[in-house]
Amino acid sequence: MLAIMNQNQIIGLSLLVIGILITLIFIGLFFWIKKQTERMSNFRINNQESKSVWEFTKKNFPLVLIVFGIMLVVAGISMLAK
Prior knowledge:
transmembrane helix; mainly alpha; 4 helices; transmembrane
């Protein structure tokens, strides 16, 4: 199968696999943290204190990585489609 794929399709497949792995790992991490620390009950209170995007990102880093993984999946699918 890899012998008949061109370079863009191989890169797209790699991005797809990496994106799926990142997304699944950090979704699991996000829910594990949520279960362990009950941080999410104070989600609105904590984020109302955020005065910049960087403060929000520091508080919700697993969510940022989940979004990044989803972007990699979409990029991989679009490269495979060509």
